[in-house]
Design goal:
By secondary structure, the chain is mainly alpha-helical. It is about 85% helix and about 0% strand. Helix 13 packs across helix 15. The longest helix is centred in the C-terminal third of the chain and has 34 residues. It starts with a helix and ends in a 6-residue tail after the last helix.
Length: about 400
């Protein structure tokens, strides 16, 4: 094959790789979001408190804290195919093991297994996008693959109680069905995935210490991290993972709560694809400001209103959240000091520190609910934190 033909083949295959990334993140979204709709039967079966529920809802992100940085460095230096296949296989393995949990401790530990595979997927996918895509296509590709997590989350939230649970019979068999889906997707990855073209990945990166040190000295990298930790990780895990229970506490049955709690996931697709693709370099900061403003307002109104205002709040929250993550990733990716060469390490730092927010978000809501007797207190705290991120957003520097 000539070099031109090989390059043309690589160019076409990037869309296959994007489709595989989409499937991997879809499996992650489904499995990671299968516990929130099942909180009521699981809590009853295992005798869990609100604080324990909060810990379980945040456990999926906990292992990101120690693993994300070394995973990011590893992915910058080694092939991604085997690492991500293993990651996608670990995620359904976690769901399978969760189905055998007998108490809080065993459920917590088995959910943490998702966090072992999660960093390879979450950190590896920006590297895949940066390696296979360039220019304007990076924003489009980032938005497309992030729709999968939203669709996976929305699907699990919407169908678990009205469809999957009655079909499976118990919450344990429900998790086993989701595990089967994940194993199938891991097998598809094993068959079809390719390493990125060497011409895209570039030369061997410098030693780990130099790479991490360089990125941690960058003020503008830290600004993105601070916004992401608060407005993406802590916010989204604290709000969306408690949302089905929030709606049940306000009088909805589990099927209704699942339907309404899925709305941010479906509307997030709009935010994932349309907003990042329309926001060009130089205009992403004001768009990011608006998405954060909208999210804070919608978190409070979702907890305080009913009927049409509740529905509208959930939809607009999803649009804002869906746009925020790809906007932050693309801004980070386009920084001259990051680029395709160091996006794995940069994403590792982001997800490692972000894991702190992802774990503490649900825990804070559970603690405040237990302490004050109302879940509204936790929602107000989340809304206030998101709006506080408007200040560092003004300091974001685009290329």
């Amino acid at each position: 094959m000539t070099s031109e033909a090989h390059a043309s083949s690589d160019s076409r295959y990037k869309w296959v790789m994007l489709a595989l990334v989409w499937l991997g993140y879809f499996a992650f979204g489904v499995i990671a979001s299968s516990i929130p709709p099942l909180v009521t039967p699981i809590a009853h079966d295992l005798s869990l408190t609100y604080s324990q529920i909060g810990s379980i809802l945040g456990a999926v992100i906990l292992i990101y804290i120690p693993l994300s940085i070394p995973v990011g460095i590893l992915i910058d230096r080694a092939g991604m195919k085997k690492a991500i296949v293993a990651a996608i296989a670990l995620i359904p393995l976690s769901a399978l093991l969760q189905s055998f949990a007998s108490n809080f401790q065993t459920l917590f530990l088995t959910i943490c297994i998702v966090g072992v595979g999660g960093p390879f997927l979450s950190v590896g996918t920006p590297k895949i996008v940066a390696s296979w895509f360039s220019g304007k296509q990076r924003g489009l590709a980032s938005g497309i693959y992030m729709t999968s997590a939203f669709i996976g989350t929305a699907t699990a939230t919407a169908i678990t109680n009205p469809i999957v649970m009655p079909l499976a019979g118990t919450w344990r068999d429900t998790l086993r069905l989701y595990a089967l889906l994940g194993f199938i997707i891991a097998f598809v990855w094993l068959l079809l995935a390719r390493e990125a073209p060497q011409t895209q990945t570039g030369s061997t990166p410098p030693p780990m210490k130099d790479t991490i040190g360089k990125l941690l000295r960058e003020k503008h990298v830290w600004i993105i991290i601070i916004i992401a930790v608060s407005a993406v990780f802590l916010n989204s895990y604290g709000f969306t993972r408690w949302l089905p229970k929030l709606l049940e506490l306000r009088g909805m049955n589990p099927a209704e709560a699942g339907f309404y709690a899925s709305l941010p996931g479906w509307s997030g697709i709009i935010g994932n694809i349309i907003i990042p693709s329309l926001a060009k370099t130089g205009s992403r900061k004001p768009v990011l400001f608006v998405t954060l403003l909208v999210q804070g307002i919608c978190i409070y109104s979702s907890a305080a209103t009913t009927g049409l205002p509740l529905t509208a709040s959930l939809i607009f929250y999803g649009v804002g959240l869906g746009a925020t993550a790809p906007l932050l990733i693309v801004i980070l990716m386009d920084m001259p000091q990051v680029g395709a060469k160091h996006i794995g390490a940069a994403s590792g730092i982001l997800f490692s520190i972000g894991g702190i927010g992802g774990f503490t978000g649900p825990l804070i809501v559970g603690f405040l609910t237990e302490s004050t007797g109302t879940i509204l207190t936790g929602m107000i705290a989340l809304a206030a934190l998101v709006e506080a991120m408007l200040i560092p957003t003004l300091l974001v520097k685009e290329k």
